[in-house]
Design goal:
This is DUF4402 domain-containing protein. This protein is mainly β. It contains one helix and ten strands. The relative contact order is 0.20.
Length: about 180
Amino acid sequence: MRVNSVLLLIVFICLSLSSNASEKGNNAGHILVLNLVGDAAPYEMDVDGFEEPATCFDVNLINAKNGKMIGTATDCLSDIVPGSNGGLELIGTTFFYLHEGMIVTRGSTTVQEANHEIMTASGISITHITGAAGAENAIIDGTGRFADSTGTVRLSGMVSMHDGGIYFDCLFVITLTDE
């Protein structure tokens, strides 16, 4: 009877340790496909790494795999300058607030006026296309399960700029590497 109790205790300890390890870090190879969707009004917020306040927007965060709301996101735009071909260049810092923790990503982003009429599935007329990608680590902070995470981020987005705000329908593909 004692041997069974000792074995159960060892199994319990091992499972507890592996569970804690998966809560923080150990996300290598995990891919998050997150959809920022919704209409948002701009506000200013100080963002680490920038002298001027960023223009930020709070948006719903949807799991693109199943369409369910899984949190919220704050998308902050800094260092906005005219780009080539009439577009804009900016630095995007995005805070993803998920049940398992928070991920903060940053990357150089391009916003370009749409060349032809584009409508979302829900009938929103899109005015601009936005995108970013890179091979370098784009995760600048994380908490909970995402503490100490590293990875790449790809943004493919559609936005409708209008007086007083922006409608977002942007996909973020976050590939966690945890090197």
